[in-house]
Design goal:
8-stranded mixed beta sheet; 4-stranded parallel beta sheet; Rossmann fold; alpha/beta
Length: about 325
């Protein structure tokens, strides 16, 4: 009998290990302030012992909307320490769903490994009737333990579905089918018969094929997101620049169109402070493209990335950044 694969489990918190006041508490459980004790999530899933050898790796637990840059950087270093010490064949990270897609994309860009790294969460707390986190975690471990998951970048597994960390986004506040890859679809499934099935993989570069290595960084540049709406006057853009943002992502209307006042503010802070502007869209899907006029003004187009994911990639010179958006 072949030896079971080794999977390291990093529990960062979120709904998956939250405990509500009763079994029907599906909305206010965060206010209860309770979590499963260390080791308790694993203890409730003895089925995992037939899938992989699991080792829980300590990490701080907090809701995902409380994450800061240091948490991302420490998470990258923790994952590398696991793989550098050859302690696991794959890694699973439990994570709150509010910002799980941003963390997945950050890991997809910055990890220097082709071993499977899977993020997983849940839409219902551990104490709820029909809590989805337990099966989500089992499927995430199956994916992380599967040799065919290697070299596919950071993956997100929820609701039996395997998504690319680049493409996936949250589409609903409470539904268990909340996560979708709108334009491109999922990569595959952790299916009901216990098999992990992949149907395609992303053509965008990731992990070992990117130019990003953040392991020695203590912080990340400030990048803000500004949302367009009828009558937006550009004050938020000026405020972001004044706060020290080196880049601003515009969650603009339609195919990437800020208001005239926002345009004026963008041009002003770019000229005066060199703040890089990235145009994305507030709509559900589709590309934002870089016209000749936008290129002349120093704008970057965010392709089909959601604004909060474009924020992860926004860095320095406009033309150089555009190459990155086209590549990653």
């Amino acid at each position: 009998m072949s030896e079971l694969p080794r999977v390291a489990l990093i529990i960062t918190g979120g709904t998956i290990d939250s405990v509500g006041k009763d079994r029907l508490d599906l909305a206010w459980y965060i206010e209860a302030g309770k979590r499963l004790n260390t080791g308790e999530l694993l203890a409730q899933l003895p089925e995992l012992n037939s899938i992989a050898k699991i080792e829980e790796v300590p990490f701080r637990r907090l809701p995902s909307h409380a994450l800061v840059d240091k948490d991302w950087l420490d998470l990258v270093r923790t994952i590398h320490a696991i793989f550098d010490g050859n302690k696991a064949d794959g890694v699973v990270i439990t994570h709150g769903t509010n910002t799980i897609e941003e963390s997945a994309y950050f890991l997809n860009l910055t990890l220097k490994t082709d071993r499977p790294v899977v993020v997983v969460g849940s839409m219902r707390p551990s104490s709820a009737i029909s809590a989805d986190g337990y099966l989500n975690l089992i499927n995430a471990v199956k994916v992380a333990a599967d040799p065919d998951s290697r070299g596919r970048g950071c993956l997100l597994v929820m609701n039996d579905t395997i998504h690319s960390g680049r493409d996936v986004t949250k589409n609903a506040t409470y539904r268990v089918e909340a996560f979708r890859s709108r334009d491109l679809g999922p990569l595959g499934y952790a299916d009901a018969d216990g098999k992990v099935i992949f149907y395609h993989q992303t053509a965008k570069k990731h992990t070992i094929n990117t130019e990003f290595d953040v392991r020695k960084l203590d912080s990340l540049p400030r990048v803000d997101v500004v949302v367009s709406y009828v009558g937006a006057d550009g004050k938020m853009i000026e405020a972001a620049a004044a706060a020290g943002a080196m880049g601003i992502v515009s969650a603009a209307t339609g195919a990437g169109r800020p208001t005239p006042k926002e345009d004026e503010a963008f041009d002003r802070v770019y000229k005066e402070k060199g703040v890089i502007m990235c145009l994305c869209s507030r709509v559900a899907s589709g590309r934002v493209v870089r016209s000749p006029g936008l290129a002349r003004r120093g704008f970057v187009a965010g392709d089909n990335l959601q604004p909060w994911k474009a924020r992860v990639l926004l860095t320095s010179n406009a033309d150089e950044i555009q190459r990155m958006f086209d590549t990653y």
